[in-house]
Design goal:
Helix content: 40-55%
Distance between the termini: 15 Å
Number of strands: 6
CATH topology of one domain: Rossmann fold
Order of helices and strands: HEHEHEHHHEHEHHHHE
Bound molecules: guanosine-5'-triphosphate, magnesium ion
Largest sheet: 3 strands, antiparallel
Number of helices: 11
CATH class of one domain: Alpha Beta
Oligomer: single chain
Structural class: mainly alpha
Radius of gyration: 21 Å
CATH superfamily of one domain: P-loop containing nucleotide triphosphate hydrolases
Length: about 300
């Protein structure tokens, strides 16, 4: 989970994995990365358990990492800096949490709610980090080219193409690269080539028509990326309720399913894994959430 400080990453993380990590109204409340396991609710499992009278049910899981907020200059060590960029390198996909809720009591490090500016700030840092990685790679490949390595010439062209795109401010994920370029891209392990899921942390009741959410939606569509709209505060409250009160609470809030279910499902799709298609029951899977405070 990446995003600016104070946008609700830990709030959503806690609800997802059943953690009690510090989510607080000040920037950089998360310093050490929180790691947790979120269950993937799947109604087919419940049926199988019934049929086979299984004593234990183990749903698929998703490891989620909630990292410190990134700020402008992170790639040069600003804020909590570079160490977090290297942690992002290890993950399979990015969940980019974007603040779309207005709340004068919750400080916004950018001075006001502006989803597109916020996304650009975060992505710029990731792209700057990638440019450094690519510059180092380019130097190595150039040496290989000089020594007469013919494959290296193609790689050099690809690396130069990635550099040019990044210099134009273009995100690499979702670009129409050739299979060969894709292979080179994979070798580079770039941050801006990772699959992205945008999460709009929105005001209760806001949908795709909400002006703030709509700007994120338009960007996601342009990129061919997915967007999940959820209400962080509400999900946090919902996830701490006893199972018997949850349905009532959701009905009152006008929700048919938890945003967290849509989130895990979208994350699974993003990773080309295969969760159940029909609406799963989040409540049934809540007991599978696990969280161990970890420092990485
Ligand atoms: N009104 C409102 N407040 C929210 C929502 N989600 C989170 N908050 C509040 O925003 C503040 C920051 O939330 P965190 O979850 O700590 O944010 P974070 O992105 O993890 O922040 P850092 O760890 O500092 O990067 C807390 O006071 C939350 O209660 C929301 O959907 N609506
Ligand atoms: Mg946090």
């Amino acid at each position: 989970m990446i995003g600016l400080p104070n946008v609700g990453k830990t709030t959503v993380f806690n609800a997802l994995v059943g953690a009690g990590a510090v989510a607080a109204n000040y920037p950089f409340s998360t310093v050490e990365t929180n790691v947790g396991i979120a269950p993937m609710p799947d109604p087919r499992l419940n049926k199988l358990v019934d049929i086979f009278r299984s004593k234990k049910m183990t749903p698929s899981t998703l490891e989620v990492r909630d990292i410190a907020g990134l700020v402008e200059g992170a790639s040069k060590g600003e804020g909590l800096g570079n160490q977090f960029l290297s942690q992002i390198r290890e993950v399979d996909a990015l969940m980019h949490i974007v603040r779309c809720f207005q709340d004068p009591d919750v400080v916004h490090v950018g001075g006001g709610v502006n989803p597109l500016r916020d996304i650009e700030t975060i992505e710029t840092e990731l792209m700057l980090a990638d440019l450094e990685t690519l510059d180092r790679r380019k130097q190595r490949v150039e040496k290989k080219v000089k020594s007469g390595d013919t494959k290296a010439a193609k790689e050099l062209a690809a690396v130069q193409k990635f550099i040019d795109l990044l210099n134009k401010g273009e995100w690499l994920g979702g670009q129409p690269f050739s299979p060969e370029e894709h292979a080179f891209l994979n070798e580079c392990q770039l941050l801006s080539a990772k699959p992205v899921l945008f999460i709009a942390n929105a005001a209760e009741g806001a949908g795709e028509g909400d002006p703030l959410v709509r700007t994120v939606k338009e960007l996601a569509v342009k990129r061919g990326a997915r967007l999940v709209i959820l209400y962080g505060q509400l999900e946090a409250e919902l996830s701490t309720l006893p199972a018997e009160d949850r349905a009532e609470f959701m009905k009152e809030a006008g929700l048919t399913e938890s945003g967290l279910v849509r989130l895990t499902r979208a994350a699974y799709d993003l990773l080309h894994l295969r969760p159940g298609r029909s609406i799963p029951t989040w409540s049934a899977a809540l007991s599978e959430r696990r969280y161990t405070p970890t420092t990485i």
